[in-house]
Amino acid sequence: MSEVVSEKVGSPPAAPPAEPRATASRPRRNRIKIAATAVLVLFLVLLPILVGSEVAYLKVAQYILIGAVGGIGLTLLVGQAGQLSLAHPFFLLVGAVSYAVLAGDPEESDDLVGLGLPPLLALVGAIVICGLIGLAFAPVAGRLRGIYLGVASLSLVFLGLWLGQSLEAFTGGTSSGRTPPTFELFGFPFSNAEPSPTLFGVAIEKQQRLWYLFLVLAAISYLLARGAVNSRIGRSWRAVRDNEAAATAMGVNVTRVKAGAFVISSAFAGLAGVMTALWLDLVKPDENEFTGSYSLTVSIAFLAIVIIGGLGSVPGAVVGAAVVFGLQQFFLLGANEFGWFADAEFGGLNAVVLSAFVYGAAVVLVVLFEPGGAAAVGRRLVARLSPSDIPSAPRGGRSTPGSEPERNDDDPTA
User: Fold this and answer.
1) Fewest CB within 10 A of the end CB: N or C in the chain?
2) What is the spatial distance between Cα 307 and Cα 310, in angstroms, rounded to a whole number?
3) Would 313 be classed as within a structural domain?
4) pLDDT tens readout for residues 25-71
5) Cβ contact 106:148 at 8 Å
6) Would you tell me how many other CB atoms lie within 10 Å of the CB of residue 76?
7) Coil, strand, or helix at residue 188?
8) Number of domains in the chain
């Protein structure tokens, strides 16, 4: 008796598993990124040539790079580790003063402290000092979060104001300040020197040299931050940010991770402080806590950089710096060069107030319509240039059934 094998008549054969179509669009997306990066790098390298003798525009670009370095450090702390901090101006001041003291000539003045170290060593030392001070704040940073840490860190701004005004032997005081030493690298001074080398007929003098120095420092900061975000350190930051209890269950030392994030952010701010001193060619503490290079206004500006660029996005911090720091210097340039706001009365609309209105409005628009910031907008534009059948994240970072909110974590396209 033969065995009867029952089969369903008319049932179609099982289809083989389909390959994700996003894989096909990935090479094209990578080519777009490589081409855009190459064009951007070429533009930045040739910028001193393009502006020629109009160094005022170059100083605007330099200030954007300062904001980018500080913004990258803050977005690691706020966006990746989930820790709110308003202490960036304090570490900017510490970085600037530390560089001036470490590299200062001890024989220049009897009233100012100077150790006479090589400028490169002084720059590294200033970054280390800021990191160590951030480490000293670790017992607070490791046990607080959210608005509580923000208020606690705000006290450092007032502490910096008092120390800057009191320790005149280090800072030079609020009346005159002190001039930071010229930065030198292997005997090459980043100042006006004769004879000046030329590049395509443009003399490479102080501002051009500082531009290339700032560009290298910003590039190093960017690469280090991207490496940290995509490493085990970045994953531990995000684990603590998302759920401290779950992170503890997975073996993450929450207190150590929080403290480490604060130390790294402080070091980035210290580097931005050294760049600020070289850009201003002056180290001078603020006279009050509301206006100046190390005031509460700067704290708000750095938070705006992080929000506009997208919380946790390293490239977004660069875009946010271009909006916040770039607009302010652009309006100041227009006021100085073209007479903008010449009729403005005391307390009226001027360059600083207008720039604050513009980036304040940008923050409101981002919060309401695109919580992912400029990073989310950039990902959406790249997705349009290289479409795939994989549904993209919903607009504004809002989740829908079957999809996750858009994040600015370690997405390689961010």
Assistant:
1) N
2) 5
3) yes
4) 667 777 778 888 899 999 999 999 999 888 899 999 999 999 999 99
5) no
6) 27
7) strand
8) 1
Residue whose token pair is 């894989």: 23
Q: Is there a contact between 295 and 93 (Cβ–Cβ < 8 Å)?
A: no
Residue 391 covered by a domain: no
Domain ranges, residue 63: 25-385
In a domain, 19, yes or no: no
Q: What angle do CA 16, 17, 23 make, to 5 degrees?
A: 130
Q: Is residue 412 part of a domain?
A: no
Secondary structure (DSSP) of 132-167: HHHHHTHHHHTT--THHHHHHHHHHHHHHHHHHHH-
Phi (first) and psi of residue 46, to 5 degrees:
-90, 0
Among the listed residues 336, 331, 323, 333, the one whose alpha carbon sits nearest the alpha carbon of residue 351: 331
Alpha helices, DSSP H, located in 281-412: 296-309, 314-337, 351-369, 373-385
Q: Does the pTM exceed 0.85?
A: yes
CA dist 268 and 266 (Å) reads: 5
Instruction: List, as one string, the DSSP characters of 201-214.
Output: TEE--HHHHHHHHH
Q: What are phi and psi of 189, to 5 degrees?
A: -85, 140
Report the SS3 class of residue 185. strand
Look-up of token digits 């979060």: 145
**C-alpha atoms less than 13 angstroms from C-alpha of 274 in its C-beta half-sphere:** 33
Phi, psi (degrees; rounded to nearest 5) at 203? -70, 130
Cα of first residue to Cα of last residue in the chain, in angstroms, is 68
